[in-house]
# Entry
Amino acid sequence: MSISGDTRKVADSVTKKAISQLESQLDEALSAALKLADSSHKASSEKAVKVIERKAEELRELLRSKAAEADLRVKLKEESIKAEATDKVMSEALRRLKLDRG
# Structure
């Protein structure tokens, strides 16, 4: 075999080995990038879930507050109606007493 043939074989072998190493490095880099992207996505998702849960709790608390406020208004209105009815009954009773005594 000639020197140029051996040189070509050596060059081909070195090239194939270098390409194989580069492909392996690319695979490792891709795997690391995918893991990083997945980790980043997971962290972002967890953060978003926490923000949503916190906002949902704030809204639940606001709803409880508004419900309590509405209950209080209803009770106050009931008391007002009862007081007004009592006043009317008392006024009518006094009016009749005055008429009877009259």
Q: What stands out?
A: DSSP finds one helix and no strands in the chain. The chain has a mean pLDDT of 94.
